[in-house]
Structures are given as C-alpha cells and as structure tokens.
Amino acid sequence: MVDTNRISGLINSMRREDDLPLIPDIKPSPDYSTGALIKGRYRVIGRTGGSMGDVYHCLDTLRNSDVALKTVISSGRRDHRKVFSFKSEINRLFRLPPHPNVLTLQRIEYIDGYYYLVTEWTEGKNGSTLRDGLQSDIFKEHLSSAKVLNYMQQICCGLAHCHKYLSSPESPYVFGDLKAENVLMGKDGILKLGDFSDGCTPGCSAPELFNEKKGGDERSGLYGMARVSLDLLNCVSDYGSPLYEQLWDVLGRCLQEDPADRYPSLSALMNVLTGLSSLHNLESYDEKKHAGAPFLDQYNRIASALNMGLAARIYDPLNDHALMNAFFSRGTFMSMGDYMEAVSPNEKRLYRAKSLFYSGKTEQALAELEGRLGASELLHFRAYILYTKGRTEKGSTEKGCIEESVHCLFAAILKDDHLPSYDLLAGILLEYPLYRAGFRREYESLTDRAVKICRDHPTGYLPFQVVAKLYMLEKNYRMASSYFRRSLQFVNIESEWQVLNYYALCERALGNVPNALEIADRAAALKESDPHLCCPAAGTVQETAWTVLE
Description:
Radius of gyration: 26 Å
Shape: elongated
Structural class: alpha+beta
Distance between the termini: 18 Å
Low-confidence stretches: 1-16, 311-318, 327-340, 531-550
Strand content: 5-15%
Strand order of the largest sheet: 1-2-3-4-6-5
Number of strands: 8
C-alpha cells in the first residue's frame, strides 16, 4: 500500500484550500520586469497591458530581432470568454499565411504555466498603433486625404486576406473588433491588423454583430474599416479637398446600419478605392511590393505547433508536411532545424517523428524513435504514440503497446523527472487499472520523486494536476479534488474540460453531488463550446475514469 502521508505532507497549506471557490479565478500571468530573460531567450524591453492580456516587448536573442509576447490574464473572475477568445486567436493566427497587412505569428511558447503568442513587433515613429498616431501632433500634421486613402487600401487588403483563409462556406470570418487600437503601425508606414480575438466594441464594430439572429459577414469588416478611417479623415490637413469629399462619401456608404446598403464586398470597395487613386494620379497600394520571404515564420510556427502538441487543429498533413519536405529537399533550408530553430539532434529527431505522426504515418514515426533515445522528450513522445495506437487496437497488440508506453514513461521520469511523462503515466494508470496493479512497485518508488518535483515547480496547472491524479490513484479523493481545484487557477488551454471531469468524479466520490453536477455541467459546456481544441487522443475521460470509483 502506498504511504499516502508522503504526498499529504507536500504543501500543508493546501488543506486550507476549501476556502477557494468551486471554480477559482485564473491567476494573472507572471510579472516579468525589464531586463528579465524569459525562457533563456526573450529579453524583456517593456510591457503593455490590454483588455485581453499582457504584451511584452522583447528582444529575441536567438534571432536578434524584436518580438511581442502576448498571453491572457485574469479579469478578477473566472472569465471563460477571454480564454476562449485567446484560444481562437491562436487558432486563427496559425491558419493565416504571412501577409504584409496582418500581424505575423512566429511561434507559440509555453512559459511558467502560460501559453504565449510570439509575434513580430511593430512600432512606428509615432507609436505602435493608429490610436497612438492619432494622439501625436506630428502624425496628424503630415496626415492627408491621400494618406488616408492609402491606409484604407491597406486595411482592406488585410481584411481580404483574413476573409480568404479564415472563412468557410457556412461561416464567413468577421474581424469584429476593428478599431484604431488594433491596427498596428510599422516603421515603414505599413499597417497590420493585430487582434484576432472574438471581441466587439460598441461604436466601433458593426451593429449586426450585436444581434445574435443576424450575425456578420464580409460587409461587417467594411463598417469597422470605415470607423477607423473616419477618425483619420477628421484629422487631415487638406480638409474639404475633392479627395476628402469623395472619401467622405465612400465612408458614409460603408457606415450604413443595414449591411445591404453598404458595398456588397471587400473587392467592390477596393475597386472604388483603386479608381480614386487613378483619378487623382496617386499610386495605388500594392501588397505584393511589401511581401517579404515568409518561409522562416511560416514553417517555424508549424514546427512550434508540433512541439506544443497543438498540431491536431492547425496542421494540414496533406499540404504542410509535403511542402516543408519539398523546401527541405530543394535546399531552401540548410537543414530541417533551421526553420524550427532547433540546435540539437534530439530536437530535429523529435520534429521528424511528430511530423510523421501528425501526417498519419504512425509506424514510420515509431521507426524514427527506435533505438537509443537519449532525451526524455523522445521517450515521452514514443510513449504517447504507443498509447494512442494501443487505444485503437484490441487484444495482444493493445496490451503490448500500453505496456511499452508505460515503460517509456518510467524511463523518461527516471531520466530527468519529466513532468509531462508523470501526467501521461498517471492518466494511463487511471484508465487501465490492470497496469496500475502490475506496476505497483515501480509506481511506489516514484511517489517521493513526484512530491519533490511538485515542490520545486509550483507554477502552472500541470504540477498540481499530476499530484491530483496521484491522489486519485490512491482513492484519496478529498486531496485530489483540492489539487484539481488548485490547477484550475491556471490557464489550461487544451484539456481544461478533461480536468473538470476528473474533478467532478472526485466530488461525486466524496458525496458532494451538487458540486459534482455543477462541475460536470461546466465541463460539458466547455467541450461543446470548444470541441476542436480538445486533444484527439485523450479519449472519453467520463467513461474511462468511472473505473476508479468502482
């Protein structure tokens, strides 16, 4: 029998967590000071706060370039709307190919318990957004109707790019929160759409976006663009000129309350703006002249998606895998590690295995991870593949895969206390009681190690989630419930609904039926609201975990 006291003594204060709400607030992200080095790579230059999250201006010391790190923060209560919005922003930026008028996503990082979007940093001479420009006398002094026309064309090009790649036949994409604060200004005068959350702002967003029955479409973006452009036009130095009057008429049509009274599409509006440029002998904005070489960012972010386990929803095996390998074989990159910024053979090997696995080539991925595996990440991913394969097989194949998966996880844990391996191992042992009994001695030997790693790394949801699952294995549901509750204080983008399911099971085992029902309802609502963000190999926790209670 496992000595429960060894885990119970982990953090005595946790026994007082009964004072926490049933679903606690999300903790704010870490407060990094100027000069701090985040993850050994990003040197903090400054920080700005927004309605949705913290944004750090950093120097990427590996690339020697300025970047922005953005994460979601607490609003003082459990606000799933913000978390969903942040998830949606990640999803959309991953799906958008690079474009000069859209903020470029470079990577996604998981740092100190939080996901961070790593994007290019844009800062013009008069601030980083159009709103900053409108508050600058120098900017307004040089603002003319011709410049406003150019800005309108740039915004329309960015909107058209988003509409092309983010829309589906049944659901057109709408850039709902288009306002001066969300249009970024580069040093070269290029504007970039910079906020892909789900927010809408009264007075800035199209009126139909606040009507659930109507919804929005491509014409809603025209309204938002017009609101931004109207603020610009009111500050021009050539007030009353012929172009000014013509732009005023164009914006007036875009701002009609009924979408049917606006221009029928972005392309129709862009044709009108091109005509005005020609009429006044102005050079029309050409997005092709400002398109850079997108390959580094495009494939680097795919690789970071693979590394973060987010590939299931943004990775297109038919296109991305073939395209990346085509560029590699043509010599566009010195090696596969160049665009994923990997410096070790282990990282490159891990990338190749993940690329194969998410392309549906399970056996080839396993072959890539055969032989000597010198890194815990390689052992962990081999275990994950075997676990996924075992769950789809029956009989001896299933048993062999699960057993080998467990052996790989023990090896990863013993190598360097690999926390994700603790989590996957605990999940497998909860799902398969037979293996929990078969590996009892090995499991007991790791209990002290689990206690130590949770003491040393009390940041983020994962350490608390691991300990909670260990308590579930020991049928200590009171402490498991306490630790699951503590883990919910951190953003858990991929599997929060699964954690809530486990948490509900613990409350049910304790006889707290009302609590269990409320938590289960939240889990069901999360899964229903955000199904594409759930890990495909996680299985049905509600079904498999009942065995723990029997």
